[in-house]
Amino acid sequence: MKKRLLLLTGLLSMLVIIAACGKDVPDDLDWQVEDFTYTDHTGSEFGMSDLEGDVWVADFIFTNCETVCPPMTANMSQLQDKLKNEDVKVEFVSFSVDPERDTPEELVTFSEKFNADLSNWHFLTGYSGDEIQEFAQNSFQTLALPDPNSDQFTHGTSFYLVNKDGVVVKKYSGDTNVPYEEIVSDVKALQ
Protein backbone atom coordinates (compact mmCIF):
# COMPACT_ATOMS: atom_id res chain seq x y z
CA MET A 1 0.00 0.00 0.00
CA LYS A 2 2.80 2.41 0.93
CA LYS A 3 4.65 1.64 -2.32
CA ARG A 4 1.47 2.34 -4.30
CA LEU A 5 1.03 5.67 -2.53
CA LEU A 6 4.65 6.60 -3.24
CA LEU A 7 4.28 5.60 -6.90
CA LEU A 8 1.03 7.54 -7.21
CA THR A 9 2.60 10.61 -5.58
CA GLY A 10 5.59 10.38 -7.91
CA LEU A 11 3.39 10.07 -10.99
CA LEU A 12 1.22 12.95 -9.84
CA SER A 13 4.31 15.11 -9.33
CA MET A 14 5.56 14.30 -12.83
CA LEU A 15 2.17 15.15 -14.34
CA VAL A 16 2.14 18.50 -12.56
CA ILE A 17 5.63 19.30 -13.84
CA ILE A 18 4.77 18.22 -17.38
CA ALA A 19 1.53 20.21 -17.35
CA ALA A 20 3.20 23.29 -15.92
CA CYS A 21 6.02 23.22 -18.47
CA GLY A 22 3.83 22.48 -21.48
CA LYS A 23 3.99 24.90 -24.37
CA ASP A 24 0.29 24.67 -25.22
CA VAL A 25 -1.04 27.15 -22.70
CA PRO A 26 -4.75 27.81 -23.16
CA ASP A 27 -5.56 31.39 -24.09
CA ASP A 28 -9.13 31.59 -22.88
CA LEU A 29 -9.43 30.41 -19.32
CA ASP A 30 -12.53 31.37 -17.41
CA TRP A 31 -11.89 30.36 -13.81
CA GLN A 32 -13.57 32.49 -11.16
CA VAL A 33 -11.31 33.05 -8.14
CA GLU A 34 -13.18 32.21 -4.95
CA ASP A 35 -13.59 34.98 -2.42
CA PHE A 36 -10.83 34.87 0.18
CA THR A 37 -9.42 36.81 3.10
CA TYR A 38 -6.00 35.67 4.28
CA THR A 39 -3.01 37.23 6.06
CA ASP A 40 -0.36 39.09 4.12
CA HIS A 41 3.35 39.57 4.81
CA THR A 42 2.56 42.57 7.07
CA GLY A 43 0.31 40.46 9.30
CA SER A 44 -2.79 42.29 8.00
CA GLU A 45 -5.89 40.84 6.41
CA PHE A 46 -5.77 40.82 2.62
CA GLY A 47 -8.29 39.38 0.19
CA MET A 48 -10.40 39.64 -2.92
CA SER A 49 -11.96 42.88 -1.75
CA ASP A 50 -8.47 44.46 -1.78
CA LEU A 51 -8.02 43.38 -5.40
CA GLU A 52 -11.43 44.52 -6.61
CA GLY A 53 -11.11 46.32 -9.93
CA ASP A 54 -7.41 45.41 -10.28
CA VAL A 55 -5.59 43.21 -12.75
CA TRP A 56 -3.29 40.82 -10.88
CA VAL A 57 -0.78 38.05 -11.38
CA ALA A 58 -0.75 35.11 -8.95
CA ASP A 59 1.45 32.14 -8.18
CA PHE A 60 1.95 29.46 -5.51
CA ILE A 61 5.24 29.21 -3.62
CA PHE A 62 6.72 28.32 -0.22
CA THR A 63 9.80 29.73 1.47
CA ASN A 64 11.43 26.41 2.33
CA CYS A 65 11.30 25.25 -1.30
CA GLU A 66 14.45 23.57 -2.61
CA THR A 67 13.53 23.56 -6.29
CA VAL A 68 11.14 25.78 -8.30
CA CYS A 69 10.07 28.54 -5.89
CA PRO A 70 13.31 30.56 -5.85
CA PRO A 71 13.49 30.82 -9.67
CA MET A 72 9.74 31.46 -9.87
CA THR A 73 10.02 34.31 -7.36
CA ALA A 74 13.05 35.74 -9.16
CA ASN A 75 11.05 35.58 -12.41
CA MET A 76 8.04 37.26 -10.79
CA SER A 77 10.36 40.00 -9.51
CA GLN A 78 11.67 40.48 -13.04
CA LEU A 79 8.09 40.65 -14.33
CA GLN A 80 7.26 43.20 -11.65
CA ASP A 81 10.19 45.35 -12.81
CA LYS A 82 9.17 45.09 -16.47
CA LEU A 83 5.59 46.15 -15.73
CA LYS A 84 6.80 48.98 -13.49
CA ASN A 85 9.06 50.22 -16.30
CA GLU A 86 6.02 50.23 -18.60
CA ASP A 87 4.06 52.18 -15.94
CA VAL A 88 1.37 49.50 -15.85
CA LYS A 89 -0.84 49.21 -12.75
CA VAL A 90 -0.95 45.59 -11.63
CA GLU A 91 -0.92 43.67 -8.36
CA PHE A 92 1.04 40.50 -7.57
CA VAL A 93 -0.12 37.78 -5.19
CA SER A 94 1.97 34.82 -4.03
CA PHE A 95 0.03 32.22 -2.06
CA SER A 96 2.12 30.09 0.30
CA VAL A 97 1.38 26.37 0.07
CA ASP A 98 3.15 25.87 3.44
CA PRO A 99 1.16 28.10 5.80
CA GLU A 100 2.36 26.23 8.90
CA ARG A 101 5.94 27.47 8.42
CA ASP A 102 5.40 30.54 6.26
CA THR A 103 4.66 33.23 8.82
CA PRO A 104 4.44 36.85 7.71
CA GLU A 105 8.02 37.33 8.95
CA GLU A 106 9.27 34.36 6.91
CA LEU A 107 7.51 35.70 3.83
CA VAL A 108 9.15 39.12 4.22
CA THR A 109 12.60 37.54 4.61
CA PHE A 110 11.96 35.39 1.52
CA SER A 111 10.70 38.34 -0.54
CA GLU A 112 13.78 40.42 0.31
CA LYS A 113 16.03 37.79 -1.30
CA PHE A 114 14.40 38.64 -4.63
CA ASN A 115 14.09 42.43 -4.28
CA ALA A 116 10.30 42.19 -4.35
CA ASP A 117 8.58 45.56 -4.23
CA LEU A 118 6.02 44.93 -1.50
CA SER A 119 3.97 48.01 -2.41
CA ASN A 120 2.05 45.92 -4.96
CA TRP A 121 3.20 42.36 -4.22
CA HIS A 122 1.35 40.48 -1.50
CA PHE A 123 2.72 37.27 0.00
CA LEU A 124 -0.16 35.40 1.67
CA THR A 125 -0.53 32.89 4.48
CA GLY A 126 -2.96 32.52 7.40
CA TYR A 127 -4.99 29.48 6.33
CA SER A 128 -4.74 25.73 6.84
CA GLY A 129 -3.03 23.35 4.45
CA ASP A 130 -6.41 21.88 3.53
CA GLU A 131 -7.79 25.35 2.77
CA ILE A 132 -4.98 26.26 0.35
CA GLN A 133 -5.21 22.87 -1.36
CA GLU A 134 -8.92 23.38 -1.98
CA PHE A 135 -8.49 27.05 -2.98
CA ALA A 136 -5.67 26.24 -5.44
CA GLN A 137 -7.73 23.47 -7.04
CA ASN A 138 -11.03 25.36 -7.19
CA SER A 139 -9.73 28.77 -8.28
CA PHE A 140 -6.57 28.00 -10.26
CA GLN A 141 -7.03 24.34 -11.31
CA THR A 142 -3.68 23.43 -9.74
CA LEU A 143 -2.32 21.28 -6.94
CA ALA A 144 -0.85 22.32 -3.60
CA LEU A 145 -0.01 19.06 -1.84
CA PRO A 146 2.52 18.16 0.83
CA ASP A 147 5.10 15.57 -0.21
CA PRO A 148 4.56 12.63 2.18
CA ASN A 149 8.29 11.79 2.05
CA SER A 150 9.81 15.18 2.82
CA ASP A 151 9.11 18.71 4.04
CA GLN A 152 8.53 19.85 0.45
CA PHE A 153 5.30 20.45 -1.51
CA THR A 154 4.03 19.59 -4.98
CA HIS A 155 2.43 22.60 -6.62
CA GLY A 156 1.94 24.21 -9.99
CA THR A 157 4.64 26.49 -11.38
CA SER A 158 2.43 28.75 -13.48
CA PHE A 159 1.84 32.47 -13.28
CA TYR A 160 -1.89 33.21 -13.49
CA LEU A 161 -3.32 36.39 -14.99
CA VAL A 162 -6.51 37.52 -13.24
CA ASN A 163 -8.72 40.23 -14.73
CA LYS A 164 -10.53 43.08 -12.95
CA ASP A 165 -13.55 40.81 -12.36
CA GLY A 166 -11.51 38.23 -10.44
CA VAL A 167 -11.42 35.71 -13.29
CA VAL A 168 -8.28 33.78 -14.26
CA VAL A 169 -7.99 34.45 -17.98
CA LYS A 170 -4.56 33.02 -18.80
CA LYS A 171 -1.64 31.07 -17.35
CA TYR A 172 2.04 31.08 -18.28
CA SER A 173 5.18 29.17 -17.40
CA GLY A 174 6.55 30.71 -14.22
CA ASP A 175 9.75 28.74 -13.68
CA THR A 176 11.42 28.46 -17.11
CA ASN A 177 11.02 30.29 -20.40
CA VAL A 178 8.75 32.93 -18.89
CA PRO A 179 7.06 34.84 -21.76
CA TYR A 180 7.61 38.28 -20.22
CA GLU A 181 6.66 40.35 -23.25
CA GLU A 182 3.46 38.35 -23.76
CA ILE A 183 2.48 38.80 -20.12
CA VAL A 184 3.18 42.54 -20.26
CA SER A 185 1.09 42.83 -23.42
CA ASP A 186 -1.75 40.79 -21.91
CA VAL A 187 -1.76 42.84 -18.69
CA LYS A 188 -1.90 46.06 -20.72
CA ALA A 189 -4.82 44.70 -22.74
CA LEU A 190 -6.82 44.16 -19.53
CA GLN A 191 -6.33 47.72 -18.22
UniProtKB/TrEMBL annotation:
Key words, A-Z: Copper, Signal
SUPFAM superfamilies given in the database record: Thioredoxin-like
Q: Where is the Thioredoxin domain?
A: 27-191
By its UniProt entry, which CDD domains does this protein fall under? Answer: SCO
Report which superkingdom the organism of origin falls in.
Answer: Bacteria
**Residues in the signal sequence:** 1-22
Q: Does the keyword Signal apply?
A: yes
Q: Does the keyword Signal apply?
A: yes
**What Pfam families does this protein's entry cite?**
SCO1-SenC
Q: Which family does it belong to?
A: Belongs to the SCO1/2 family.
Protein name, entry field: Protein SCO1/2
**Organism name:** Guptibacillus hwajinpoensis
